Amino acid sequence: MKVVPGKHYLAFVLDEACKKMILGLYPANHPVVKCDHVTISYPVMEEDVNELQAVVDSNPVFKLNGFIEADGIDVFRVAVNNYCLRPDGKHYHLTYSRLESRASSDSNKVFEGEIIARSYHSAEEVLTGEFKLVPLGQ
Q1: Mean pLDDT of residues grouped by 10 in the chain (138 residues)?
Q2: What does each C-alpha distance from 10 to 37, 67, 88 come to in angstroms?
Q3: Calculated CA dihedral for residues 37, 38, 44, 50, nearest 10 degrees
Q4: Which one, out of 21, 114, 129, 130, has a CA that is 20 to 30 A from the CA of 12?
């Protein structure tokens, strides 16, 4: 996949088998189930293209690195080649389930401490999927 700048973000999109595996292992606590992608860069800027292309070309290993139940939203921390922090300093994560009143982007607030985590569980499954450029707002 070729990374280009634009009005999109770079994500690792889970395949259906991976999503079904996670749903089978971890029952969703909230009615809106996402469990679809890990954001790599939001948005894709011109100055980041070479670094992001290197990430894509390296065929990194994506692995769950913990399950956090928070107020109205549940999220998995994800390690990419054993690193949990993205180049922009945010955490790699997979929004799992949420209340209607929460936005998927509220997952970031869990890691920033704005939304209080109620419990943390270990999780270590390897994720499968593919890189995609996703239009902003999706």
Answers
A1: 96 98 95 97 95 95 97 98 93 98 97 96 96 92
A2: 10, 23, 13
A3: -120
A4: 114
